[in-house]
Amino acid sequence: LPAMMQQALPVLDKLTEQGFQAFFVGGCVRDTAMGIPIKDVDIASSAKPEQVMAIFPRCIPTGLQHGTVTVVHDGVPYEVTTFRTESEYEKHRRPLQVEFIDRLDGDLQRRDLTINAMAMNASGELYDPFGGLDDIHHKTVRSVGDADARFQEDALRMLRAIRFASQFEFTISDSTWNALLHHRELLRFIAMERVQAELDRMVSGTSPDAALRLLSESELLRYCGTSLPDVNKWTEPVTTGMLSGIAEPDTRYAALMITKDISAADAEETFKALRFPMIRTNAIMSILLLQINMRQQAGELRLAWTEAVIQYGEEAARRWLVVVDWDKQHKQHAHHQCLLDWLNGMSAITLKQLNLNGRQLAEGLQREPGLWTGQLLKRLLLDVALGKLPNTQPELLKQAQIWIIEEQ
Ligand code: ATP
Ligand code: MG
User: Ligand 1, from 66, 105, 109, 111: best to mutate by most atoms within 8 Å of Cβ?
Assistant: First the structure.
């Protein structure tokens, strides 16, 4: 057993001492069987939620109606879920009825994929009624039981099948794939937040390129509840470079939109439809708007770049440079190093970084502060960022004085 599961053994032991069954389930069993590091440890038990809570002093009633209690042991939280079956799914997403049961098999049967429907006991023995281990060996993603029925119950499972297939570079079995194609339109019943969560795992995971290939082949995202503009275009696998060559998730989204030439309006509509947090949408949009600026740039490159960096900020600029470096066909690809050097050389990018503020400027020039102070500071900032002017108070004041005199 991996160390994280060994640490959780006392939780299993306490449950079995009280006469309940308890097993490791889900991702940790799958990842252990695959020989890869596990992320968290989930436990399934015949104990009902209130029985679990009676045994463990420290727990959180996470989802009592679904049978889930979070048990904190040695500071680590574990989800302990009562064996259950699900039935009568409401609108292809949530079970209307969950029934607690006392058999592990029934609990494994309600799970989505064979690789996710295995359990392990405290001695590390595997319970694998649906051939999950076999599918791992054959690198296959397969629904538990009848794929048609399973996707009709919960349409999110279609996206999960693609997520796991891409994450592990597995192939989706023929019958599961055909069922997925057949039931694509059921995705409209799934809340966009859940679509986003799965998509985000795909795009930010280790195999975004494989995920795009499957999303594109299946055209699954065309069937979302809120329609996504250009979705066929931006989910097309990228030819410019492997998306996995970019580290940050949000830079990956920006790279997709940029190489596929998606308009800013359509990109924004997409991230909003997907219910991205505002802060992420804004961060990605800054990269895209900077891109539009640089694409339209006609005059001097250094001036256009410096103005764009000041307008959209250093973070967007650095992320955009990552995209430019990655996309060999990008208009500015040849200038990447030069743009980066200029950026690294900017001693101020924001007014805050300028060694002169509005009050100091007004006092230095012995004039009443007003609209002019802000305008002058911006002009000074641009010259500092361009490397034309040292970022020191005396030099900044001197230059400001010259401009004032020139204007009179
Ligand atoms: P990850 O390592 O990405 O967390 P995981 O397998 O733990 O993978 P979770 O989303 O955390 O995935 O779900 C835990 C387990 O619950 C899954 O392994 C699966 O058995 C079951 N499960 C999750 N979502 C569904 C679903 N929509 N339908 C059926 N079973 C599901
Ligand atoms: Mg998990």
Answer: 111
What number is the ipTM of this complex? 0.98
> Model confidence over 114-160: pLDDT tens digits?
999 999 999 999 999 999 999 999 999 999 999 999 999 999 999 99
Residue 234 near residue 260 (C-beta atoms within 8 A): yes
* Ligand with smallest separation from the Cα of 29: 1
Q: Which CATH superfamily is domain 1-138 in?
A: Beta Polymerase, domain 2 (3.30.460.10)
Does this model's pTM top 0.90?
Answer: yes
CATH code reported for the domain at 139-223? 1.10.110.30
pLDDT digits (tens, 9 = 90+) for 8-18: 999 999 999 99
Helix, strand or coil, per DSSP, at residue 298: coil
Q: Give the full edge-to-edge strand order of the sheet including 126-127.
A: 59-63, 68-73, 76-82, 42-45, 22-25, 119-120, 126-127
Domain chopping of the chain, boundaries: 1-138, 139-223, 226-345, 352-407
Helix, strand or coil, per DSSP, at residue 34: helix
